[in-house]
Amino acid sequence: xxxxxxxxxxxxxxxxxxxxxxxxxxxxxxxxxxxxxxxxxxxxxxxxxxxxxxxxxxxxxxxxxxxxxxxxxxxxxxxxxxxxxxxxxxxxxxxxxxxxxxxxxxxxxxxxxxxxxxxxxxxxxxxxxxxxxxxxxxxxxxxx
Length: 144
What we know:
The chain has a single domain (12-125), classed as Metal Binding Protein, Guanine Nucleotide Exchange Factor, Chain A (Beta Complex). The protein has one helix spanning 38-44, and strands spanning 12-15, 22-25, 31-35, 49-55, 59-62, 66-71, 78-83, 90-95, 101-105, 119-121. It has 1 helix and 10 strands. The radius of gyration is 15 Å and the shape is globular. It starts with 11 loop residues before the first strand and ends in a 23-residue tail after the last strand. By secondary structure, it is mostly beta strands. The strands form 2 sheets. A 7-stranded mixed sheet has the order 6-7-8-9-4-3-10.
């Protein structure tokens, strides 16, 4: 799957663990969202996923990720989850209901400093040891 032919100048870059897949995007992200849904927990092998929402026309990916399509258990929305076929690192997610947006997994960024989380979604699925941030909006389900 080809994401786009974006300009070569990038504000941020990232890669998978083995370096087979890399990307760069320009400008600031539209949002940074923490997702507590069951699929994000399972996909990342963690308590949540930190998602950097970037317009699709501002990202360029190098390499050929493998894609796995999922359907949201609660909302039924399709997701294409792109990951490295060599090391298994989750790299991107494409939401079918928002085809102009690509979700970059924040843990794959070369330098994640300076990102500010704007909200948390699927809070009702958050693991019980996670404390809510006092100044961050939380949505029990999807923010949409």
